[in-house]
Design a protein that fits this description.
- By secondary structure, the protein is mostly helical.
- It contains 2 helices and no strands.
- The termini are far apart.
- 0% of the residues are buried.
Length: 146
């Protein structure tokens, strides 16, 4: 074996030292480079995993919020319809009240006008009777004086 090594010009001591150096280099690289890089990659993987989980939670929360929003909008629409119905009912009641008051007022005005017309008619008849009586008296006076 030694003849093969000397034929190729390989010194076994140098080969052993190179192997020890290479082993130390591999250990050093493993400790100072491979370990931290792998730790950094694992941290990054966990960070991405947390990001995906957080995104899924946010999606679920958004869906819940959308459901709640739709429910609130439906409740608000129901309340608005109810308020509109109450307002219409109140307006109809007020309209009926005002119409009834107007009808009473018109009836009162009509009865007052009718009463006033009767009084005016009665006065006119009384004045006409007085005039007719005066004319009769004057006519009788003239007929008696002739």
């Amino acid at each position: 074996m030694e003849s093969i090594l000397t034929t190729f010009g390989i010194d076994w001591r140098l080969l052993l030292i190179n192997m020890v150096n290479f082993g130390l280099l591999v250990l050093g690289l493993w400790y100072f480079l491979y370990g931290p890089v792998m730790k950094m990659l694992e941290d990054r993987r966990q960070k991405l995993h947390r990001g995906v989980e957080d995104a899924e939670k946010a999606t679920v929360a958004l869906q819940e919020i959308e459901g709640t929003r739709a429910q609130k909008l439906a409740e608000a629409a129901g309340e608005a319809d109810e308020m509109l119905a109450r307002a219409r009912a109140a307006a109809a009641a007020k309209e009926k009240e005002l119409r009834d008051a107007a009808e009473r007022s018109v009836e009162s005005l009509l009865s007052d006008a009718e009463l006033q017309a009767k009084e005016t008619k009665a006065r006119a008849i009384a004045e006409s009777r007085e005039e007719v009586a005066k004319l009769i008296v004057l006519g009788m006076e003239k007929a008696l004086t002739k």
